[in-house]
Amino acid sequence: MSAFIEAPASGPAQRYVQRMCRVIDHVYDHLDSALDLDVLAEVACMSPHHWHRIYQSMYGETLARTVRRLRLHRAAAELAYSALPLTRIARRAAYPSLPSFSRTFKAAYGVPPARYRALGQHRSFTLQQAQPPGEDLQVSIEQLPELKLLGIAHQGSYMLIGRAFDRLFAHTAASGLLQHGPRCFGLYLDDPSQVPERLRRSVAAIGPFTAPPSLPHAELQPCTTHAGPYATLLHRGPYDGMHASYRWLLGQWLPHSDYDAADGPLIEEYLNNPRDTAPSDLLTRIHLPLRAETGQS
To answer: What residue stretches are annotated with the HTH araC/xylS-type domain (predicted)?
Structure first.
């Protein structure tokens, strides 16, 4: 488990965190707009000459790369789960032409947008729903310990939990909580088929910690997962393919297993970083809580 370093709840570091959080919120709220560096410097209340270097030092990527990554992430979800024309998706991602969007998308996702829509991972999982798990779809039963985590709540589309993670990293990095490389988790509290998208609750979290760390900001909240058996599926690929992975796990594997689902959130553990990992190489462990006893009928 990770150690933690206590830090004061206020001070110079926290002032910079609040400034960066304002920039994060502005970027997420204005992905469809041109993001002028001078305007963002004003949002951050920093010198236009220095603020972008501060952002890059804190987040490990340039602002331009952040915006491009977020727009491509949204475009991949639109390709997978909407019928929007490719030209409109390209415009929403701020590309002047479909060819330029296709080149950039292929460089990030490995295939052009049209092929991704037709043959992407979200499709391959859908086609395999009626089949028993093959060698590439293995579920393991794991006994997970209780995990003491620190997180930020998110309400809305699960695809936008990255916003909460960006705020979480800003707060915890400034407080020294990232020095020992804590793991990253997403806790998903609501059933997307039953709860409207705008009301869905989730938590972006890091940990585990041996003891609850001091909270450098009121937005951060401690949370604890339940110890017990979990069905674990390793998902490889873009995050927009997670929905189909869940459909297979819950709709095919679980009914054919000897287990019953337990009350409690679904847990995702993110094994690598989307900032420096190609979407096709992202690794995510999906943990479905199970009842301690096997199901009886």
So the answer is: 21-119
Strands 266-270 and 283-289: antiparallel
Q: Which residue has the tokens 């490995």?
A: 110
Tokens of 58: 């804190």
**Whole-number Å distance between alpha carbons of 120 and 244:** 11
DSSP for 134-174 reads -TTS-EEEEEEPP-EEEEEEEES-GGGTHHHHHHHHHHHHH
DSSP 271-292: -S-TTTS-GGG-EEEEEEEB-S
pLDDT, tens digit (0-9, with 9 covering 90-100), for 264-296: 999 999 999 998 898 989 999 999 999 976 654
Q: Write down the pLDDT at residue 275.
A: 87
Radius of gyration for the alpha carbons in the chain, expressed in angstroms and rounded? 20
Contact status, residue 167 vs residue 224, Cβ threshold 8 Å: no
> Going from the N-terminus, what domains does the chain have, and what CATH number goes with each?
12-120 (1.10.10.60), 139-289 (3.20.80.10)
The residues facing 183 across adjacent strands are 207
